[in-house]
């Protein structure tokens, strides 16, 4: 490529960048002042570069007067720590059976190391993040979650004991308003408080949905490690209604870790959240693409 060709190619790149910025205008106007709850899953935060990109997107959102509330997971990181401590762990429908020893490790990993890593990553990008857990200011009060499953032989519903897995029953989001109304960015670990002083392990998606519902957030973004919700053929579906979600779950197409996400989506929408998007947190700038471009990303769940 000679000098003239090179400079023409560079001008084309700049123009494309300027066009992208200009095309963001209607989206910036639509989300001006909006509250967006972003769940950052343990798989999505797999490496330092992914964490840095995520933090940069969150700071950019806040700079554009969109108010992010970050709720994080950390399932794989909890697994690693439990393994080091030789504590066995199992999941039922995407939720970790959590005994007394496990809940101590869960709180340590989520409200400690991971929460502070995300806070630091956001602050490194020029944001002002504040870390909290659901215990702070009674943000998320829980009761013991119950799970029933039909025994295939007897056809009788059996109650399964998940231990200290929490189901949010009361959310007090006033403390988050203090942050979203100023230039702080709250980062919430999914640990809940019980009415009798218990510590509860809440699935990260469930916690994000409970907060989004209580705040009547405009959008709930669930960042994970797949491109979106897949159908029976394994293709990502770009849009689903609540009825589609129920059908895919009954058919067993939505399974495992995807169940808490889609359940959360339906609950959050019942509580007034505009729409829920399940998207690939490993894809560069997934949040920005979803909010500020016409392309969108992942699976949009909307009535
Ligand atoms: N229909 C489906 N579409 C996409 N992923 C699905 C589906 N059913 C089950 N999954 C599983 O759900 C996983 C996402 O849940 P999870 O591992 O808990 O994510 P995270 O750690 O991000 O919360 C996917 O990696 C995939 O294995
Ligand atoms: C009850 C329950 O399952 N809690 C989760 C909390 C972390 C989480 O949700 O992490 P991801 O978002 O990375 O999956 C757990 O113990 O793994």
UniProtKB/TrEMBL annotation:
The record marks 39, 261 as: Transition state stabilizer. Catalyzes the ATP-dependent phosphorylation of N-acetyl-L-glutamate. One of its GO terms (cellular component) is cytoplasm. InterPro entries: AceGlu_kinase-like_sf, AcgluKinase_fam, ArgB, Asp/Glu/Uridylate_kinase, Glu/AcGlu_kinase, NAGK-C. SUPFAM superfamilies: Carbamate kinase-like. PANTHER family: N-ACETYLGLUTAMATE SYNTHASE, N-ACETYLGLUTAMATE SYNTHASE, MITOCHONDRIAL. One of its GO terms (molecular function) is acetylglutamate kinase activity. Belongs to the acetylglutamate kinase family. ArgB subfamily. Its EC number is 2.7.2.8. CDD domains: AAK_NAGK-C. This is Acetylglutamate kinase. One of its GO terms (biological process) is L-arginine biosynthetic process via ornithine. Keywords: Amino-acid biosynthesis, Arginine biosynthesis, ATP-binding, Cytoplasm, Kinase, Nucleotide-binding, Transferase. It is found in: Cytoplasm. It catalyses: N-acetyl-L-glutamate + ATP = N-acetyl-L-glutamyl 5-phosphate + ADP. Substrate binds at residues 74-75, 96, 201.
